[in-house]
Specification:
Blueprint: E1 2-24, E2 34-42, E3 48-51, E4 57-63, E5 67-80, H1 111-118, H2 127-140, H3 146-159, E6 164-171, E7 180-181, E8 184-191, E9 194-198, E10 210-216, H4 219-222, E11 225-231, E12 235-246
Helix pairs in contact: 1-3, 2-3
């Protein structure tokens, strides 16, 4: 499928921000399942483009003059294939899967995680077992956020000795008139000899409706905008994401 994507952020402050540095993971890369046809990132300054340790495209935006607001817009076109659960590493040398066994602040082992993971220990690491784990997490908290579901899934996988990682991206909602969407989250877990994808919140395979942006050990490694500032007082954020299917 061909997609046109626009994602806008506008941060407003009740007093001037004197200095800020923002880390932007808003630019997708080619994978086995998707190809980026065009992409631009509009910011109030010229960011430094680099690649982080997970292979994500990272822009570092530093503003050293007082501002009352910061507006950021990512837009572009991506084409995806109909493949489901295929390997989806970014181009370039991937990190060893064992890197994604380490616990993080958002994927700590809790009594709930230990109890939930124990139910699936016999089938841990198999594709069917991981699908059952994903379905169990969804059934236990059907109204929970996508990010929370992904973190529980990752924590359970790591408890079972299965490498797992967080994925941020977009999802096209078929049948919705305006193609409105927000950033979505799903997980990847190591099964056999490759990564497999699991959309826990939507309880469906990851396929051509998913556009992948970034991966990490948890949300903080893959979130679209993360930074620090001096000044600014209270902050108000307005964000809008739009994903539309196109002919080309």
């Amino acid at each position: 499928m061909n997609f046109s994507i626009t994602h806008e952020f506008r941060y407003a402050y009740d007093s001037p921000v004197r200095l800020s540095t923002q880390y932007l993971r808003l630019t997708p890369r080619d994978t086995v399942r998707q190809k980026v046809l065009a992409w631009t990132l509009e910011t109030p300054g010229t960011p430094l483009r680099t690649t982080d340790g997970y292979g994500n495209v990272l822009h570092v935006l530093t503003l050293d003059k007082p501002v009352g607001e910061i507006a950021i817009c990512a837009r572009g076109r991506v084409v995806t294939s109909s493949a489901v659960d295929d390997p989806s590493d970014f181009t370039g040398a991937p990190l060893p899967a064992l890197v994604f066994l380490r616990e993080t602040a958002l994927t700590r082992t809790t009594d709930r995680v230990t109890s939930l993971a124990a139910r699936y220990r016999a089938s841990a690491g198999t594709l069917e077992g991981l699908r059952e784990l994903a379905a169990g997490i969804r059934a236990a908290d059907p109204e929970g956020s996508a990010a929370d579901a992904v973190h529980v899934f990752i924590a359970c996988c790591r408890q079972l000795g299965v490498p797992a990682r967080y994925v941020s991206g977009y999802v096209y909602f078929r049948g919705e008139a305006n193609g409105q969407a927000t950033l979505h989250a799903w997980a990847e877990a190591w099964s056999g000899t490759r990564w497999r994808s699991f959309d826990i919140a939507r309880n469906e395979p990851v396929g051509e409706s998913h556009i992948k942006i970034a991966v990490g050990a948890d949300y903080l490694d893959a979130c679209p905008v993360r930074g620090v500032r001096v000044g600014g007082g209270s902050e108000t954020l307005q964000a809008r994401a739009e994903v539309q299917a196109t002919q080309q």
